[in-house]
Each structure stands twice: as C-alpha cells, then as structure tokens.
Amino acid sequence: YISANIDVDSAESNHWVRISCAGFPSRREYEEFVDHFWNLGPELLSLPDDRQIVKKLLEKMEMQGYQLGKTKVFLKSGQMALLDKRRHEVMTAAATEINRVVRGFLERARYKHIRDAIITIQV
C-alpha cells in the first residue's frame, strides 16, 4: 500500500517535472487563478466551475502559451506577466472611473451648497 502511494506520488511529480521542462513554469490552482483574474472577464463568473472560467478567460485574452491540468493552469514564461499587466490596466481604468464619479458627485454637492448660499444672501 505504501509503495503504491509512493509510485502515484512519483508519477505525479514526474508529470509536473515534464510540464515545467516543457516551458510552463507558472502554475496556479483554478480557484486561485479565478480569484486573481476574475476582473478580466466578470461575465464568465456565471459558468459552473473554475476550470471552464479559466479556459474561457484565457481564450478571451487570446493567450497561446497555456495548458490546463486536472487542478491547475500552467502558463508559459511571460504569460503570467501579460495577464497581470492586463489586470492592472483594467483595475486602473476602474479606479479612474470611480474617482471620476465621486469627484463629480462632490463637485455637484459643492456647487449646490454655494448656489443655495447665494440665493439666501440675495433674498
């Protein structure tokens, strides 16, 4: 029984070594990948499982250097950096939009306050 477990673990390790040697040094579990990159495809979160979300997300981003395993996604060198760059762009755009909306709200409130003060003085 113990030797069978060792053989399974050894075979699994060999599989990981083959994948790494094939040029897929970056790897993440599906759940972790979705948690980190969900904002690149929020519409995909309605899919039933994380593996499908990852597959569709990578297709949407037109990624070429990846391989999907049973529990993890493997990315070729530089692919994780490209995804992080795109994520940063999306997050920056979202932060800019939030900033724009909040500043507009505050400026309209300030204008209304000043206008009301002027009307009070004129009356």
Characterize the structure shown.
The protein has 123 residues and is mainly alpha-helical. It has helices spanning 2-21, 30-37, 50-60, 79-122, and strands spanning 26-29, 66-68, 72-75. The chain has a three-stranded antiparallel sheet. A hairpin with a 3-residue loop joins β2 and β3.
Helices and strands, with pairings:
Elements: H1 2-21, E1 26-29, H2 30-37, H3 50-60, E2 66-68, E3 72-75, H4 79-122
Antiparallel strand pairs: 1-3, 2-3
Top keywords for this entry?
single chain; 123 residues; mainly alpha; three-stranded antiparallel beta sheet; 9% strand; elongated; disordered N terminus
Helix content: 55-70%
Q: Which overall shape is indicated by the principal axes computed on the Cα atoms?
A: elongated
Based on CA atoms alone, the radius of gyration comes out at 25 Å
The pLDDT mean sits at: 86
- Give a count of the beta strands, DSSP E runs of length 2 or more: 3
Q: What are the secondary-structure elements, in order, as H or E?
A: HEHHEEH
- Please report the distance between the alpha carbons of the first and last residues: 93 Å
Assign the structural class, choosing from mainly alpha, mainly beta, alpha/beta, alpha+beta, or little secondary structure. Answer: mainly alpha
Strand-residue proportion: 5-15%
Low-pLDDT parts are: 1-5
Number of helices: 4
